[in-house]
Design brief:
There is one protein chain. The protein has one domain: Flavodoxin domain (Rossmann fold, 3-Layer(aba) Sandwich), CATH 3.40.50.360. By secondary structure, the chain is an alpha/beta fold. It is built from six helices and seven strands; from the N terminus they run βαβααβαβββαβα. β4 (about 120-125) and β5 (about 130) form a beta hairpin. α1 (about 15-30) packs parallel to α6 (about 190-205) and α2 (about 55-65) packs across α3 (about 75-85). It starts with a strand and ends with a helix. The strands form two sheets. A five-stranded parallel sheet has the order 2-1-3-6-7, sandwiched between helices. Strands 4-5 form a two-stranded antiparallel ribbon. It has helices spanning about 15-30, 55-65, 75-85, 105-115, 160-170, 190-205, and strands at about 5-10, 35-40, 90-95, 120-125, 130, 135-145, 175-180.
Length: about 210
């Protein structure tokens, strides 16, 4: 039976559009997949480790073929534990609001913690990066309230989906579906939400 992990990048709780759409998705997913397991990782719950100087030194040691030593050991072990928590699942649901044209910094922190040599990627001087997170599926909910397709440059840019989609592919997750909610400042928010919820239900049934 498949295991689904919902990773929530929004701190807004009940006020979060991305989280609300994710709840629509998971409810339909569980209805369509009896016995399936769904867990949630709130990136704001305090369990995501930091990735500071000692962790960076550990990463560079591993890339160079050495073992982390001294004050590098525990930060490296924390990153490995975070990866193992993530890797237990074969399906992922990401709810990603747009922050300043990009992704919330907690999602970037997750990416920086997970993206380790021998775990998410291998690196060759001849061929470059080789992704290791293959055979997994993802659905990503992208939301924004100012930027939207077709608006002028004064309303921002989409570095949200371009960045996160690129990371998924780089890591080896290429089976990716998107749910979008971009009503803009003058759009019909209720209609946009209905369209997003409807798509979430359709995708969840066969995910």
């Amino acid at each position: 039976m498949s295991r689904l992990l919902h990773i929530s990048a929004s701190p807004r709780g009940a006020e979060s559009i991305s989280l609300g759409i994710a709840e629509t998705f998971t409810e339909e997913y569980l209805a369509a997949h009896p016995g399936a397991e769904v867990d949630r990782f709130d990136l704001w719950d305090g369990t995501l480790p930091e990735f500071g100087p000692a962790a960076v030194a550990a990463k560079m040691a591993v890339i160079g073929g050495a073992e982390p030593t001294g004050d590098q050991v525990e930060p490296w072990a924390a990153a490995v534990r975070a990866f193992e928590r993530f890797d237990r699942y074969d399906r992922y649901l990401f709810s990603v609001p747009m922050w300043n044209a990009g992704v919330p910094y907690k999602l970037k922190q997750l990416i920086d913690v997970l993206s380790q040599p021998g775990l998410v990627f291998d690196l060759s001087v001849e061929t470059g990066y080789r992704p290791l997170l293959t055979g997994k599926r993802a659905t990503v909910i992208y939301t924004s309230s100012v930027w939207g397709p077709g608006v002028g440059p004064g309303f921002g840019n989409d570095f949200q989906s371009t960045y996160f989609g690129d990371w998924l592919r780089w890591a080896g997750i290429t089976d990716v579906q998107e749910i979008r909610h971009h009503p803009t400042l003058t759009g019909d928010h209720a209609h946009a939400r209905k369209l997003a919820d409807d798509r979430a239900r359709r995708l969840a049934r066969t995910f």
